């Protein structure tokens, strides 16, 4: 019997979509650019270069913290985090240690420990016999959102990361795209036998898609039951379809943090914080609730329509072109994304009421018991026959997909 409970915590890194980098004027958008074309003495870590914090990046980090219910630290500061790796030209990364911008938030039932700001590193590319480094990414603003070890299942992790991604995209501060690396997830997982937090944990790196997050966690739950509980850093290997050891505990880093001497501490007044809060706008869950109340939509429809801010705003723009329910149906089922497409659809749409449609289908079913029996016995063609009959009676006014859905519902 399985008596182990997974205890999972997450660190999520998000690259901010600011125009310039965190501490210099180089462009922050590095995706698909010629290597090392977007660098300067600051982000290359050359001696004497002075970092100047990007105000927008700091404000966006606070905005995300507020959206996650965090408290903004009255005073926060940047620190140097030291380690040696070829992707880090200065030998340290400017990050935040004991005074992060935001602390103590919550998303659903998951407690958020901190939201802090740091700079991204360069990117290593390994080829045969040689490793190349591209510093275009070096110094791009990177937010880190750290949870408490509150997850007890992979499903909870899934719900959380998708909700976090949705909120970040709503705020418009990052594309939060795992494939492009603008959102990166590092789970820590241990197994508990008594529900308490164990005294070890395994950190997982290189998990660069939602699917791999699931697979890596599933793999670890099985592996830790089999091999026991040892503190390690492991990476997800797509080739091996397994996690592999990267570092044991005794090699754990000592980062020798100390305050960044070139950047003064930051202080925030209540006024400044409420100014940033006022820029947050309506978040997905609030929007969904409002859509249900204001437009009388079902939970499902409102969830679909508020999936992205763009889609929700488009719905509100066109909701008055028909009944909200009908417009919602068209947007959800027909994948209509522009007003022109919608108008075309409304003009060509058969003028037939839901009642009329239902009555016609019921009549057709009554007249064709043999076809129903055939369909129940697995003959898909019988369904097509019934749809055809209905379309003929409606003189082409219905749509085949809708009719077939009604028939399925009625005769299952
Ligand atoms: Zn630069």
Automatic annotation (TrEMBL):
Gene3D superfamilies: 1.10.10.410, GatB domain, N-terminal subdomain. One of its GO terms (molecular function) is ATP binding. The gene is gatB. Belongs to the GatB/GatE family. GatB subfamily. One of its GO terms (biological process) is translation. It catalyses: L-glutamyl-tRNA(Gln) + L-glutamine + ATP + H2O = L-glutaminyl-tRNA(Gln) + L-glutamate + ADP + phosphate + H(+); L-aspartyl-tRNA(Asn) + L-glutamine + ATP + H2O = L-asparaginyl-tRNA(Asn) + L-glutamate + ADP + phosphate + 2 H(+). Keywords: ATP-binding, Ligase, Nucleotide-binding, Protein biosynthesis, Transferase. This is Aspartyl/glutamyl-tRNA(Asn/Gln) amidotransferase subunit B.
